[in-house]
Amino acid sequence: MSSTETNHIIQVKDLTKQFGTFTAVDHITFEVERGEIFGFLGANGAGKTTAMRMLCGLSYPTSGNGTVAGFDVVKEGEKIKRHIGYMSQRFSLYDDLTVMENMELFGGIYGVKRRELKKRATTLLQKLKFIEERDTMVKALPLGWKQKLAFAVATLHSPEIVFLDEPTGGVDPITRRQFWEMIYQAASQGTTIFVTTHYMDEAEYCNRISMMVDGKIKALDTPANLKKSYNAASIDEVFRTLARDAQRGD
Amino acid sequence: MSTLKVLLKKEVLQFKRNAFLPRLVVAFPIMIMLIIPWVTTMDVRHVNVSVVDNDHSQMSQRIINKINASEYLTLHSVTGSFDLSFKSLEHGDVDAILEIPQDFEKGFVTGRTKKLSISANSVNATKGSLGSQYLAQTLAASIKEMRARLSPAQVGDLVLIQNRYNPTLEYRNFMIPAILVILIIIITGFLPALNLVSEKEAGTIEQINVTPVSRFSFTLAKLIVYWVAGLIVITIALIVAWLVYGQTAVGSLLTIYTGAFLFILVISGFGIIASNISSTMQQAVFFMYFFVMVFMLMSGLLTPIESMPQWAQRVTYVLPPRYFISIMRSVFMKGATFYDMRFNFLALASLAVVMNLGAALTYRKRS
Amino acid sequence: MRGFLKFIKKETLHILRDSRTMLIALLMPVVQILLFGFAISTELNNVNVAVVVPKWDEQIRQSVNKLSSNPYITYKGAIAEHEIDQNLRSGKVDAIIVFAHDFDRLMTQWKQSGNSKAAMQFIMDASNTVTAQAGAGYLNNILAGELMQSNSLVETHMLFNPQMKSAFNFVPGIMGMIFILICAMLTSVAIVREKETGTMDVLLVSPVRPLTIILAKMTPYFILSCINLTTILLLARFVLGIPMSGNLSSIIVVSLVYLLLSLSLGLLISTIAKQQIVALLISAAVMIMPIVMLSGMMFPVENMPAVLKPVSAIVPARWYIDAMRKLLIQGASFGLILKDFLILVGMTLALLAIALKNFKDKLE
Fold first, then answer.
1. Which residues of A touch B211 (CB under 8 A)?
2. Is residue A108 part of a domain?
3. How far apart are CA B321 and CA C215, in angstroms?
4. Where is pLDDT greater, at A70 or B106?
5. Pairwise CB contact (< 8 Å): B6 & A105
């Protein structure tokens, strides 16, 4: 592995996804460095989720190439999956299993040993402050807690990269704060975080952010540099400047 | 292997927690086995006959008595006009009308015999033809008696008929194995078909697809649950068949279970295919329903394969129940051995391989 | 009224967008009626026969020739006596004819006196009673028919179905089965799906009356089912050759009521079930058996034991199939199917009322 590849845990070039005549993701090119919190911003429908699904091996790119954790996104999707964690935008854990059963299931799938799994799950649940809900059926949990559980499941097996698709969608401000604390904690332990959001204030928490408009990446830099080069007071303003000519989204 | 264990635990937990599924697997076979065998009779035993007696003679009375005494015929009415009898036939109360012409007895004595006429409702062709056949036989017998002036005991039979394996000609014995096969088709076909697609609709499949879990172990974990469910279904059905209908297998139970297991493999694999290629539960159910009906109606379960037109008979070679019902009936009723049925077992085993390979291959982790 | 139309539009859009399901719902009945209408038959077309001959003579040779030249018989050759069971057990043959060792003499005796010891024995595989009975009848006719003279005094008329087509019996049955299952499957998810996705609450808080919601949900499926009805009736008449001798408007009216009934049944299931999977399992898996077995489609209702007749009476398909057999095949007048019709109407109203009540209970 060359030195650039070890630094760049994600590297994509001209990644494109078309659904029929509709180009959801249009020739995007970028790198993500190991250990950074990378924000993937854009309006609804800009193509964030589609791009992320290609990186996670859930969807084949129409063209372009790239690597995630050193594996090819086109040919080695299954290998990528060993090294990543994923939290989907739509809650997708099992409603009819308890909190602990869900964690055991997904930990088990990644081959985390039983005893180690118990220990990690307990620690995570304690941090998330819902250890007393470990035997609660998931369908009985409020949405914010479900999201916490989804995050815990995504990081349980200590992946190299965690993909978070709108992790804070629909949760209250306090939970949102807790989430970002957890994200920082994971990053401080060397995990790379790839997070999509359409809350522009959250962008400030990222090391670097990319701005996606109509399937293309319009800007990519640190929040500070972006504000400087666009002469804006907030990321929100930067985004509004970029998205002025957007065709899709709301 | 450990992945499989984890996945299996999940499937078992989910199955047990569902309020409906465990009940379906246990209660449904019991209900069906208690009720359906009673109604599956094609035995044409109670042909309702209306006699139009235009003769009013000793002979016509004799014929009427003979009909009344027959075990297969039931005398519905004796009327004076065909129209009256025909009305009852139109209503469905009468299956066949026997018309005895005027001066039948007179003609019989003088040798210028007039013909008796049978009119059978043959909307149901089997019932119509068997019914009129019985009636004709009864008439022939009474005419023969009258001719020979002999009592029936002294009339020898040219042909002896031995009904082997089912001497009392109980149609139910023939249908119980078929009902058992249908139960397996319904339970181990519909359940897997709905399970996987319900994960698609709930979105949980996404979280699984992003893990390195292989499609083989994921599919297998689901299948194992349905294999067990299928074996429970057949065991319940066999027990009811024994307790309620006193029907036990003449041949070996091991052979029956081997066949049943192979068949369950085929059908559950097929269910998974249906699930994989559907995007909603409704689609999966439509897909399964279509094939379940084809399996039920075209594989010789309810009507003989040999009665179907050539093209349809050729179709049956790819229908798995064709082989299993043949195993079931032969082993159950005739005591056939594994060796007797080897080609059927071979066909089932091949279909099992094809279906399960198909099930694993149609599961796409990536779009 | 405007609310009603809006709702219908919404429901119609749902269906139209899911083009795959709609295509299945329209195509499947066509394939099924053709497939089953042509294929299902109970006529016995072939009997596999082997013979056991202790001593060949000219008479036996003649008899065997008669067998092998008969289109309904496949002659499988002569076997030894100890092979009888193996041949029947493995299903190689359906019947075995054992000739007496003095067959020649016995036949002559019978011809002269009409009485003798048995000259042959038919050993039938009676595991299938119907083929065994009919098969024995065939063999009897072929080998001994001319000696029995049983039919000379009797002439037989087959009413309504002189060519003895199985389709005449089965097509009305298949129609009854297809309509109720497909309609129920279509509507059984209509309400429970909204419960699962949470859109139900939006409906419940809206000022639209429950009856309006129920009817609006039914309307597009009813139109869809009418298309199915049309294609099936056309196929039955022109492709399957069903006579349809009854009054066409009676046929249509009864069928429309039956469609409504089936859709209501689906809706009722939808109001009861808590999950889509349960609704679908009930409308498909659970209902298939009673409908095929208890409706008279396969097994004549009049053969059922008295205890089970009431069970069969609650199966709606039974009444529809009965009415259709009378209308399509017997050419009966409406008066003859009035009872069937009234029962179907009553059932429809009852199902709708219960569905509506269940649905209203959700509001409280």
1. 81, 106, 109-110
2. yes
3. 41
4. A70
5. yes
Confidence category of residue B123, pLDDT binned at 50, 70, 90: confident
Select the residue from A79, A81, A109 to test the B interface by mutation, using most B Cβ atoms within 10 A: A109
Query: Which has more confidence, B4 or C131?
Result: B4
Residue A3: the pLDDT is 40
Backbone angles phi, psi at B103, to 5 degrees: 60, 30
Point out the residues of chain C with pLDDT beneath 50: 150-151
**For chain C, domain boundaries:** 2-40+164-363, 47-148
User: Is residue A148 assigned to a domain?
Assistant: yes
Highest mean pLDDT among A130-134, B264-268, B310-314: B264-268
Establish if A239 belongs to a structural domain: no
The helix (H) or strand (E) run that includes residue A32 is strand A22-33
Sign of CA dihedral B106, B109, B113, B115: positive
Distance CA C80, CA C96 (A): 11
CA distances from B241 to B38, B258, B321 (A): 12, 19, 20
Put simply, whether the predicted model's pTM sits higher than 0.80 gets the answer: yes
* Least trusted range by pLDDT, from A137-146, B261-270, C37-46: C37-46
A106 inside domain: yes
Q: At what angle do helices B320-334 and B171-202 cross, to 10 degrees?
A: 140
Complex ipTM above 0.95?
A: no
CATH class, domain C47-148, is alpha beta
CATH number (3.40.1190.20, 3.20.10.10, 3.30.1490.20, 3.40.1710.10) of B47-154 reads 3.40.1710.10
Tell me which residue in B92, B174, B292 faces C127 most closely, judged by beta carbons: B174
Q: Chain B contacts of A19, Cβ < 8 Å? A: none
**Domain count for chain A:** 1
C108–chain B Cβ distance below 8 A for any pair? no
